[in-house]
Every structure is written in structure tokens, then in C-alpha cells.
């Protein structure tokens, strides 16, 4: 089977925003794209068919750390990989678990070999090395797999950030070698994306971009942003990275973010995004719509019988009313969380789809300015 390929269709006038097409063995992805997060093999409260029909997702994300702990690689291999296990027949990307090791796991010890950590589930001890993480991702069988990296906290002192970045680079070389030494398990190609690190230091970020670019991977990721730094700093370092990463490869900004974050980062040349925000915030009553942000628990929506979002052309957004959705949350009904998650994911996919159309039309820069104000509006 063929390795991932990327066709850059156009770059918008007056912007770094790009429209492209990623081809994988499980289908095409039109960029810019948002990837719903299915951490443990499921996007919370949403079925695979709803992801296709209502959300129109082109690719979803899974996580190595969580899938390794449960159901485990033996179960995934017996099923024939994650695609067969969860019934999703479109592309999948897996995060390497590096961020989870540093944010969730207890008593972690970082050394050259890898990271020793305790499971957040039962306290059992495990070692993640570049080699073992590649092996686990081979078992999961995602189309796009991430290199094992260390994600330093914000803020980090310069010396620590530099040491961490250099360790990430050495781990990348071991990831590449491990993949070269092991075959794909399921008859289709798995594609490695290296991850740029370097915290919020310009020289380190530039050096990391240059190192990652030298590996000539089929795509590249930017990590270590959206971890607590101010938004303007995130935008500054995103732009620095896109200026120093290859033009002809897709660029993935990990863990970002709000709708306005996504628009600003598309403007700076990012092609791929993921974030738990649409589903996590949705389950807590924050609804993203084409008219702005709604706290559906507010009493003002109790007798508002207008559709959740008349600007979206799908059954969920147009059929159910704001009053009914609020009632579900007040009554603590599971359906409320499901509808909110579907609305938010549909909105995110609509937003990147609209951005793509305006990039192709050549008026993205002017459209983005008004859209940022619109999606930030508090209803």
C-alpha cells in the first residue's frame, strides 16, 4: 500500500492559510481539518455512524497511553487493529502517549531509555520507550502515528527546555529506526509524524523545526503549545514553526483549541487540529454555534424554542431546540451531553470546512476577521 501523500492545492492571498488534500490507505482528508478526539477508541457519547453522518468527520484520533492500558494490545491485535475493533473505516491518528505520561501518570522517571511511570488506573508500573511506543502503535494500527516525545511544562527554564528538546530528537531517531525494523501489521501503511518541541524559546523552536524537517517525514507536528501560555504567544510560536517547516508537508498543531484559536492558526499555516474541547465543554453545557457561544444551563434558554443552531445543516442542530437541550441538562439526562457533543463537533467541522472554502476562493483573510468575532460572541 502507499505511504501518506499531501497535495497543497492553494495558499490564500494575504495569509499563510492553506487548502490541501492528504491521501491515506483509509481515505482522503481535506485540509484544514479538525480531528475529533476518541481517546480510548471512542469519541465520548458519539457513535461512529453519527461521526460520519452528522459530524462529517474525516479522521479521528486515538491515544497510545490509554489504549495500551485498556483494552491492551493483545485485544487490539486479536481484533485486527483499532479500525476493526471500533468499526471506524476512515483514517485514524494516534498520539504517542507522551503528553499523557507527563500529565496523568504518577511517579514518572525520565531517562535516556524512556519513561517509567505508574498507571493512573491501578498504579501498575510501565516503561514507555521510543521502541515500545512504536510497537504499541503498530498494534493499534493507526494511519498516522506520532513519535515519542517529552512535552515540557509551561513555563520551563531554558536549560530544561533545551535538554528536553534534545532528548525528544534522540528519541525520534530511535522511533524512525524501530519502524524501519518492523513491518506494518495489517496490510496498510502507517505514517510517522515527528513532533517539534522547544518550549517558548525562539532559537530552540527554530532548531527543532530544522531537525524535524531534516528527517523528511511525510508530515510534521507541533507540540508543547496550548499548555498554559498566553494565546498571543501560542500564535507567535505557531507562526515561527510554520515558517521553518516544509511547505509541501502537512502541519499538525497538537491540542488546539477554541474555534478562534483554530482560525488564527489556520491563518498561520496549520493544516490539522485536535482538541477535547468540543466534547468536554459540551458535556458541561458550553455550546459552540455559528451565532456564538451558549451556556445552555442559563435560565434565559428555558423558553427559547428556536433550533440549537439554525446555521448548521444537520438534523441535530435544526431539529432540537435550545429549550429542550437546556431541559435535558437541568434534568441530568445523558441525551443532553450527547446532543451537545454532536452540535459542537458538527460546528468545528463546519468551521474548518468554511475556512477551506474561503481559502480556495482567495478571501480567507477578510472572512476570518469577521468570523473570529462571530464565534467568540457570548450569546
Protein described:
The chain has 379 residues and is an alpha/beta fold. It is built from 15 helices and 17 strands. Strand 1 and strand 2 form a beta hairpin. The model has no long low-confidence stretch (mean pLDDT 96).
Please state how the strands of the largest beta sheet are arranged side by side.
4-15-14-13-12
Bin the helical content.
Answer: 40-55%
CATH-defined architecture: Alpha-Beta Barrel
Structural class: alpha/beta
Number of helices: 15
Beta-strand percent range: 15-25%
The poorly predicted ranges are none
Radius of gyration, in angstroms, nearest whole number = 20 Å
What general form does the structure show?
A: globular
Biggest sheet character: 5 strands, parallel
Straight-line distance between termini: 49 Å
> At the third CATH level, what is the topology name?
TIM Barrel
CATH class: Alpha Beta
Counting structural domains, the number is 1
Mean pLDDT: 96
Per CATH, the superfamily is Queuine tRNA-ribosyltransferase-like
Tally of strands? 17
Amino acid at each position: 500500500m502507499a505511504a501518506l501523500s499531501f497535495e497543497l492545492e492553494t495558499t490564500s492571498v494575504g495569509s499563510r492559510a492553506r487548502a490541501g488534500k492528504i491521501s491515506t490507505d483509509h481515505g482522503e482528508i481535506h485540509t484544514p481539518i479538525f480531528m475529533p478526539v476518541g481517546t480510548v477508541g471512542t469519541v465520548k457519547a458519539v457513535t461512529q455512524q453519527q461521526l460520519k453522518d452528522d459530524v462529517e468527520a474525516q479522521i479521528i484520533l486515538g491515544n497510545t497511553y490509554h489504549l495500551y492500558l485498556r483494552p491492551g494490545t493483545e485485544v487490539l491485535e486479536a481484533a485486527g487493529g483499532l479500525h476493526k475493533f471500533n468499526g471506524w473505516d476512515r483514517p485514524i491518528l494516534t498520539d504517542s502517549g507522551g503528553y499523557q505520561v507527563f500529565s496523568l501518570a504518577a511517579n514518572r522517571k525520565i531517562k535516556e531509555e524512556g519513561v517509567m511511570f505508574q498507571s493512573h488506573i491501578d498504579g501498575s508500573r510501565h516503561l514507555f520507550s521510543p521502541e515500545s511506543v512504536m510497537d504499541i502503535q503498530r498494534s493499534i494500527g493507526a494511519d498516522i502515528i506520532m513519535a515519542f516525545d517529552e512535552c515540557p511544562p509551561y513555563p520551563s527554564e531554558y536549560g530544561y527546555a533545551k535538554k528536553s528538546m534534545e532528548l525528544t530528537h534522540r528519541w525520534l531517531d530511535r522511533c524512525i529506526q524501530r519502524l524501519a525494523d518492523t513491518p506494518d501489521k495489517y496490510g496498510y501503511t502507517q505514517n510517522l509524524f515527528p513532533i517539534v518541541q522547544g518550549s517558548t524559546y525562539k532559537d530552540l523552536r527554530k532548531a527543532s523545526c530544522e531537525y524535524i524537517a531534516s528527517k523528511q517525514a511525510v508530515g510534521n507536528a507541533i507540540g508543547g503549545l496550548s499548555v498554559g501560555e498566553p494565546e498571543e504567544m501560542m500564535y507567535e510560536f505557531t507562526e515561527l514553526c510554520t515558517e521553518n517547516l516544509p511547505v509541501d508537508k502537512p502541519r499538525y498543531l497538537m491540542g488546539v483549541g477554541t474555534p478562534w484559536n483554530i482560525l488564527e492558526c489556520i491563518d498561520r499555516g496549520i493544516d490539522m487540529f485536535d482538541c477535547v474541547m468540543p466534547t468536554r465543554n459540551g458535556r458541561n453545557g458550553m455550546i459552540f454555534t455559528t451565532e456564538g457561544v451558549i451556556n445552555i444551563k442559563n435560565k434565559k434558554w428555558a423558553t427559547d424554542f428556536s433550533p440549537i443552531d439554525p446555521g448548521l445543516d444537520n438534523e441535530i442542530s435544526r431539529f432540537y431546540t435550545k429549550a429542550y437541550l437546556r431541559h435535558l441538562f437541568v434534568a441530568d439526562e445523558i441525551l443532553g451531553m450527547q446532543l451537545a457533543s454532536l452540535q459542537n463537533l458538527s460546528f468545528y467541522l463546519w468551521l474548518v470546512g468554511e475556512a477551506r472554502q474561503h481559502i480556495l476562493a482567495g478571501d480567507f483573510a477578510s472572512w476570518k476577521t469577521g468570523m473570529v468575532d462571530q464565534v467568540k460572541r457570548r450569546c
